[in-house]
Amino acid sequence: MSWSQKPLEEVADFSLGKMLDQRKNRGGLMPYLANVNVRWGEFNFENLREMRFEPGELDRYGLRYGDIVMCEGGEPGRCAIWKDQVPGMMIQKALHRIRPHPSLESRFLFYSFLKKGKNDELSGLFTGSTIKHLPREKLAKVLIDIPPLPIQQRISDILSAYDDLIENNRRRIALLEEAERLLYREWFVYFRFPGHEHVKIIDGLPEGWQRSEVECLLELQYGKALRASDRIEGSIPVYGSSGIVGSHQVALVEGPTIIVGRKGNVGSIYWSNENCWPIDTVYFVPKERVDFWLYLALPSAGFQSTDTGVPGLNRNFAYSRKLLRPSKHVRRLFNEVVEPMFAQQTTLENYNQKLAQARDLLLPRLMNGEIAV
Q1: H helix count then E strand count, the chain
Q2: For residues 117 and 126, what is the distance between their CA atoms, to the nearest angstrom?
């Protein structure tokens, strides 16, 4: 059976989210997605914000299961499928809500966008010289290759099998991360570390512990700029202040390392067990000063922007923050206990990379109809 090709406006309804204006907005507070919350194929619900919405706006700006949520600016075209992960979710103006007609399967539409994004097929529609945008009128004209619905569903089932495994591994990683944080809190906030019953508390701290400035514990080195156009896709993760922002074939830093957001997502903290390339919006900690305890301790340092103009983390300010420094024995013991958890995380993350690579090999051939399903 043949495939048809239609502009998006003929096979889906779409609209932008609501403008954030605290002076004008009325109604009850509800959570909303912003550009930073939308990744390729997934949503990041950290630092989720709220806005006021009136009852008459709920349908206009609300999400339903199966909607495609797409970035209008930032990295235009980046999108994910909404699956009712958070009840009552709304969207901000920087996002398109795309609702496919019954003749178009939402997963198939997402994979169409994913293919176009990977092949750089959308960039010709962008406007703006510095900050890129994908306006509604341009999005409406995007051509979608559409096979019969049973073929759409079969293609989506094949590709979703990879993404379902990836999502399951992400949940397992999140559980491991939560276990690490809980263990850190038990040992270094509540002071219930092994043998704590036999350690004196002096001035509110276990004997041998002290509060130290961050500068005494680590070194923050600047990342190096690497434009997207200069990256050669490979196995080396490229880190920005929002996490992994791409890949490259050459590493700047030997792992393990800790990445700290310097501009943009100020104070964000990431662990990279492998060699990587931190760009100029982040700092990184050389591997000689890195361990699991330090990674879990850094969020309590209170890193924040001190600049009045463009948000940024001043290195001297970061160095001046203080952390509770345990005894060498307890720190070493903690690293030994959590090391298997971090090793399992690394295994799952590597497995996810292989699953994504396998999916991406199939993606263009399935979406072009080259493989019969």
Answers
A1: 8, 22
A2: 12
